[in-house]
């Protein structure tokens, strides 16, 4: 919200179903955006229950074409890119003219790769997002309080089962994995 300025009517592409991504979905919907979520096929129903307007299996060979079909060949105005690596190239390809890509994760690696020509011709802005300012955090907290945003928790583990929690994390979670330490 702070960097890309998502507004009502914009199309936002969320490239995962992890905890940060699902918070992004909820925040984008609260601002009136149309949201496309991309993730594993088995997560579609849960993403739609959280408000996703469209869903695309990230493993599809025609992933880029599917997103274009969902946007009437416009592309996405904003992309929350949490996969990183070579996936950034796909995000650049599906970006609308003047789009903003917020690179906030590196599930596919820290070496980012994207085609230069669509990046330049579309005038795409890539924002590297790490931590924000105090002002941004205060805005987020205020929004969370006002709209009742809740983090999505996939499963809870006890400290005894911490290795199972890490195995689950490696398979991919829908939201956050919590380890109860008490």
Provide a quick synopsis of the model.
The chain is built from seven helices and eight strands. With 182 residues, the chain is an alpha/beta fold.
Structural features, described:
This protein has helices at about 20-30, 45-50, 65-70, 85-95, 115-120, 135-145, 160-170, and strands at about 10-15, 35-40, 55, 75-80, 95-105, 125-130, 155-160, 175-180. The protein is of the alpha/beta class and about 180 residues long. Strand 2 (about 35-40), helix 2 (about 45-50) and strand 3 form a beta-alpha-beta unit. Helix 3 runs parallel beside helix 4. The termini are far apart. The mean pLDDT is about 90.
Blueprint of the fold:
Blueprint: E1 11-14, H1 19-30, E2 34-39, H2 44-49, E3 54-57, H3 63-70, E4 76-81, H4 87-94, E5 95-103, H5 116-121, E6 125-128, H6 134-147, E7 153-158, H7 162-171, E8 176-180
Parallel strand pairs: 1-2, 1-4, 2-3, 4-5, 5-6, 7-8
The CATH architecture assignment of the largest domain turns out to be: 3-Layer(aba) Sandwich
What sort of overall outline do the alpha carbons produce when their principal axes are compared? globular
CATH superfamily of the largest domain: NAD(P)-binding Rossmann-like Domain
Major sheet size, sense and barrel closure: 6 strands, parallel
Specify the CATH class of the largest domain: Alpha Beta
Structural class by sheet pairing and helices: alpha/beta
The number of distinct helices, counting runs of at least 4 residues, comes to: 7
- What is the total number of structural domains? 2
Order of helices and strands: EHEHEHEHEHEHEHE
CATH topology of the largest domain: Rossmann fold
The percentage of residues in β strands lies in 15-25%
> Which residues sit in consecutive blocks of at least 5 with pLDDT less than 50?
none
